[in-house]
Specification:
The protein is an all-alpha fold and 66 residues long. It has a domain at 12-56. The protein has two helices and no strands.
């Protein structure tokens, strides 16, 4: 998702690559990848592990979730 611009990342319909699928859901997923890449480049020691509602539960629905 990194662009030719310094500290520039992109996602969604503006990006192109082999096998690109232009769907809203794909754009949302690409945004998580772009953020993880940006954080890693800006702060190399920081680790990001995205979490999903399927593994963490939906807030307010699962007992104990805020």
């Amino acid at each position: 998702m990194k662009t030719s611009l310094e500290r520039g990342w992109a996602c969604g319909d503006i990006t192109t690559f082999a096998g690109k699928v232009k769907l809203i859901a794909t754009g949302f997923a690409e945004s998580a990848v772009a953020v993880a890449q940006a954080v890693h480049e800006i702060r190399p020691k920081t680790k990001i592990q995205p979490k999903y509602s399927t593994t963490t539960g939906v807030p307010g629905v699962v007992a104990g979730q805020p």
